C-alpha cells in the first residue's frame, strides 16, 4: 500500500513467533487480518479524562478521528496519557507537563505506530503531548478540542478565568453578593470545551495552528460545533496521507515556524505561558529559541484580536468572525508564509483570500485594537536571566514605576498577611512574591496575578505592580512581572529583596532594577541559605532536581532533543 516500509511492519508484518504475539493479542479486539497487513497504524493520543473537564468530550472525538483514519485506509489505535485537569490538580498542573511529555514520548516510541493524532485542549495537554511527539518525530497532526461557548451571566458575556478574577474582586469589594458569585459558576462553563478567553488553552490551540500542525482554521471552532467533528474526521483522513508522504514533525517544526508562532501570539494577545511551552517544544525538535527572540519578534506587532483578557469578545465570536486564517492573512507581510503545514500546503496557500465577518473582533493591521502587543522581556539585577510582562494586559501608567517593596516569602505567607488591616502597604508599593518558581513551589504555579490587599481594593485601587518567579494564567491581567529567573529558591536576587527596598520597573527600557547598592546585595547573598527542598521522594523530587529555569522552558535537561522512533531491542 505504501512504497516505504511502515514502522509498524516491524511488529505486525512479521510471520515469525513475535509477529504471532504482536497480532494475536490484538485480535481479541476483533480486528480482521487485513488490518495488520500494510496499513498505516495511527496512534490517537487522547488526553480525555473525567478528571480533565476541558477535555471531557475528547473520548467521543477519538471515535470520529478513527472514522477518518479507516476511511483513508489506516488502522487507528487510541491510547491514553495521564489525566491533566488544570483546575483540579494540586499543587499545579505545570508540575506534570514534563511527566506527560515523557508518557507521550515513550508510549509512541514503544508501540507499533506510524503516525500520531494528538487530541488536546486544556492548557498543558497541548505542549506536553507535542513535546513528547517531537522527541520521536513521526508524522503528527493536532486536533485541538475547541473552546466552550461564550459564558452568559445576567445578560452579559463572561469569559473563563477572566470573569473569575473580576467576580472575586467584585465580591471582595462588596459589589457582588456571595449568592451571585456562586450562581456565575455554571453560567461561565456551560458547554464542553476549554476556556473561551484567549487564555493559555486558546493560546496553545492558536500556536499549533500557526506552527502548521492543524488543518487550516481548526483552532477557534467551538468544541460543540458540528464543524469541530468534521475537522476531527478530516484530520483522521489526513494523518494517513502524512504517513504515506513521510511528512514528519521536523519538516514542519522549523525555526521559521516557531518565529511565526511568536508573532501570531502577539497579534492575538496570547498568554505569557507561550514563552515557556514554545521554548520547551523547540528544544525537543532542535530549534534554539531564547527569551530575546520573543521580544525581538513579537513586541512591536499590533494587537489584532479583540478578545478577553486583552479585549472584549470571546472565542465563539472569533470563530464566527473568521478565526485564525483571517489573522494569518492580515499578518502575511510579517510571517514566513512559505512554511509547510500538515496538509502539505504552505501557510500562504491555506490562508489567502479569507473573508472577515466582524472587524470589531478581528481588526486590520492599519487600525489595530492596540498599537503594540506581545510580550516584553525585562533584564536587570532583579532578573539576571530575564523576566516577562504582558503590556497589553497591564495598566499603562504603571509600565514605568518606582515603588517600595512589600515582600511575601511564600504563598502561605501571602495568604496569612495580605488582608491584614495592619499590613503596611500603599497603592504605589510594589508587591513581591517569592518561592513560586519551578523549583521553589515546585512547578511554577499561575499565581503571578495574586490579588491586591482587600483594604486597597475597597479604596478603589484596581492594579499595582506585582513581581514573582511564578506564572500567570493566560486569562488574567494586571501589571504583573512574571518568570523572574533565576528564581528565589535557587538564590536569584529575587530572594534578597526586603520590605522597603525600592524597585524600579521600566518596560519601555526593558529593565527591572532592585535599587540596592551592589555591596549590600553581595552581603545579603552571603547570608542567604536555600530553603529545604519541598519534596524528598518521588516524581516531585526528580522535578526539583532536573527542572530548568523559566527562560529555558522549564523542561528537564535530560529530555532536551529527541531519540527518534527507532527501538533498538525487541520484546523477546
Ligand atoms: Fe482547562 Fe482553562 S482550565 S482550558
Tell me about this structure.
- The protein is an alpha/beta fold and 572 residues long.
- The protein has helices at residues 9-12, 17-26, 58-71, 97-110, 125-134, 162-173, 178-188, 200-211, 226-245, 249-252, 255-268, 273-285, 291-298, 315-321, 324-330, 347-350, 411-417, 454-458, 518-527, 538-546; strands at 41-46, 75-80, 115-120, 140-144, 151-153, 156-158, 376-380, 383-389, 400-408, 430-433, 465-468, 480-481, 502-506, 511-514.
- The protein is built from 20 helices and 14 strands.
- The strands form 4 sheets. A 6-stranded mixed β-sheet has the order 12-11-10-9-13-14. The chain has a 4-stranded parallel β-sheet with strand order 2-1-3-4, with helices on both faces.
- A hairpin with a 4-residue loop joins strand 13 and strand 14.
- The structure holds FE2/S2 (inorganic) cluster.
Rg over C-alpha atoms, rounded to the nearest angstrom: 24 Å
Could you tell me the CATH topology label of the largest domain: Rossmann fold
Strand order of the largest sheet: 12-11-10-9-13-14
- Helix coverage percent of residues? 25-40%
Q: How many structural domains are formed by the residues? A: 3
What ligand molecules are bound, each kind once?
A: FE2/S2 (inorganic) cluster
Largest sheet: 6 strands, mixed
Q: Note the beta-strand portion.
A: 5-15%
CATH level 4 superfamily of the largest domain? Response regulator
Give the overall silhouette.
Answer: globular
Give the terminus-to-terminus CA distance.
28 Å
Q: Count the E strands.
A: 14
Structural class by secondary-structure content: alpha/beta
Reported CATH architecture of the largest domain: 3-Layer(aba) Sandwich
Q: Residue-averaged pLDDT, rounded?
A: 95
Continuous helix count:
20
Instruction: Assign the CATH class of the largest domain.
Output: Alpha Beta
* Uncertain parts: none
